[in-house]
Design goal:
- The N terminus and C terminus are likely disordered.
- The chain is built from 9 helices and 15 strands.
- A 5-stranded antiparallel beta sheet has the order 3-4-5-7-6, covered by helices on one side. Strands 1-2 form a two-stranded antiparallel sheet. Strands 8-11 form a two-stranded antiparallel ribbon.
- The chain is an alpha+beta fold.
- It is about 25% helix and about 20% strand.
- It folds into 2 domains: about 110 residues, Phosphorylase Kinase, domain 1 (2-Layer Sandwich), CATH 3.30.200.20; about 160 residues, Transferase(Phosphotransferase) domain 1 (Transferase(Phosphotransferase), domain 1), CATH 1.10.510.10.
- One of its GO terms (molecular function) is protein serine/threonine kinase activity.
């Protein structure tokens, strides 16, 4: 069978249009195609498989499930976004297909899977030393800074998480999965929606509860990623205890990159205590002892009288 697959992303970025050519791929039932042994992972919108182009180049094939919830609009959104993005810390789109009831995205293949594969496993975690973890965090920060400030448009990812950070053969990070991303003009800074999408635990509180999102939503998710370098965020409420109550008090990614790369910069103090505020009734004591926190230490939350 054959698929109508888009050209390389460099050509697409130059023309703002996807030139098409036909590549031949075997039917899914044949070995080496959509088989479990070649499955790299399961995303929110469908599975990802390892494959090859006819010239032998290894690729990652994201096959969107019909029940995934990502319709043609979201699919085309991801194509148009990634086709215009060029940065070393963003995954590279090689091609796409949307015919014969198939919606497929073809990406560069990254052999070291995703960040969660390492940091959420006790054995594999030991393979990534602290210098490498810092390099990964720096790379993610640079990719976000590009999306928020240096790309053609201001882009909010809205689903930044460890599973969407892919790692190349040298463990360099690349942000992936732009199906939920939002495009802003350079003058816009925030928006709202009634359709809350993403992953709890990484969502900024104002987005999860009120549908408000901005570049500071990605900053919150980035903060969770930093926390996860030493402990998996099993309970999403533990991340919320560390957020700044007003998203305006969170730093921009420009400021974050400056903090990460400067050895002499004085880090600003949080404007509010970095723990989750809990409402205390008259019957409850003013100090509430929490059983868990983001770093596994018992946390006392004090509500001032």
């Amino acid at each position: 069978m054959s698929f109508d697959v888009a050209c390389t992303v460099e050509d697409a970025a130059a023309s703002d249009k996807l030139r098409h050519e036909t590549w031949t791929v075997g039917p899914p039932a044949m070995p080496g195609n959509f088989s479990e042994e070649n499955k790299l992972g399961q995303g929110g919108f469908g599975p990802v498989y390892k494959g090859r182009f006819p010239d032998g180049v290894e690729i990652a094939v994201k096959r969107l499930a019909s029940h995934s919830g990502q319709g043609l609009t979201e699919f085309k959104n991801e194509i148009q976004l990634i086709a215009k993005l060029q940065h070393t810390n963003l995954v590279r789109l090689l091609g796409c297909c949307y015919q014969r009831q198939e919606k497929i995205l073809v990406y560069e293949y990254l052999p070291n899977k995703s960040l969660d594969f390492f940091i959420f496993d006790e054995t594999r975690r030991a393979l990534v030393d602290w210098n490498k973890r810092l390099a990964i965090i720096n790379g993610i920060a640079q990719g976000l800074l590009y999306l928020h400030k240096h790309s053609r448009l201001r882009i909010i990812h809205r689903d930044l998480k460890a599973g969407n950070i892919l790692l190349d053969h040298e463990m360099n990070p690349k942000i992936s999965d732009f199906g939920l991303a939002k495009i802003f003009s350079t003058n816009d800074t925030e928006g709202n929606t009634k359709r809350i999408v993403g992953t709890y635990g990484y969502m900024a509180p104002e987005y999860a509860s009120e549908g408000l999102f901005s570049i500071k939503s990605d900053v919150f998710s980035f903060g969770v990623l930093i926390l996860e370098t030493w402990k998996k965020n099993i309970k999403f409420s533990s991340a919320w205890r560390l957020y700044q109550p007003s998203w305006t008090h969170r730093p921009t990614m420009s400021e974050v990159v400056a903090m990460l790369t400067s050895e002499s910069m004085t880090l600003p103090e949080p404007k509010y205590p970095a723990f989750y505020h809990m409402r205390v009734t008259k019957e409850e004591p003013s100090t509430v002892i929490m059983a868990s926190s983001a770093n596994g230490i018992t946390l006392s939350v004090v509500d001032g009288r």
